[in-house]
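Translate sequence into structure tokens.
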Amino acid sequence: MGDGQTYSNTGFIYWPPYPINKSTRYPAAENFQNAWRPIASGDHSIQTADTVFDIRNNVFWINNGFYAKYSQAERSKTFYRNNIYHLVSGYQGAVGTYTPTSLGPNTTLATGERIINSKFIVDSSNVYPQNWDMRIISDTCYAVNNGSNVGLTRDFAGNPIYQTPDIGIYEKFNTVSLDSCIFTYGNWSSCNGSFQTRQYTKTPSNCLGNPPLDSIQRSCTNSIVIKSFYYNSNRRSIRIDCNYPGTMVISNVLGNITRTVSYQANGQWINVSGLPTGTYFASTYGRSITFLR
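Result follows.
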């Protein structure tokens, strides 16, 4: 959007643009008035900047008859993206009439914007918006995963933001897919009567989701007996002697599987001379060995 000379001054914008009567209409807003200040349109940095306001990922909840946004012709340095507008008719105090709220004259929805007048946050019943519960109530709400990436990694509550952010101040966490987790598995445990289990780690550690059950638990039988399981450096082969056929998994020190080999029952040599020099782990039926190639 232009030359990138974005206006960098900060502060609250004074709104509404007329005196607030604490005893009548806006007692809650008055509490914050000392922190508000207008941004002077005569500031040189505003005059030379291409963008003064870049408004993204907001929920505009308007029920007082005011317009929701300016047209680009009126505010050429104000840009909107990925916002939700909740527009409800209401009493406009400055005018003294009941007025329908609208997007605004000569305005259109920008990229990623929607008007949603149905309920999509948990609770908006309190008279003061700062006491509302702004969490998103539905996975199918447009707010979910339709925000614009502005470089934030945490939401208003300090929870992590994954991939595309939601519109609003909170993330709807159960929308994160298992694709956001990378699972790394340990060795299978010894057979415990009828099943084996194995531990796993996930990256990032706070990502949502768990691996499929069959990836961390499998059926087995205690009748399996491994009589010998070792590496012979002269033959560059692994000897496995088991009363059942099975599958041996060979992985490197980084945990990457380098070879999967099926073997027959009652003894077999498995040649590993083709592996590059290094340290490896071979495992089968909950047993494992370490060998050097």
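Note: The mean pLDDT is 76.
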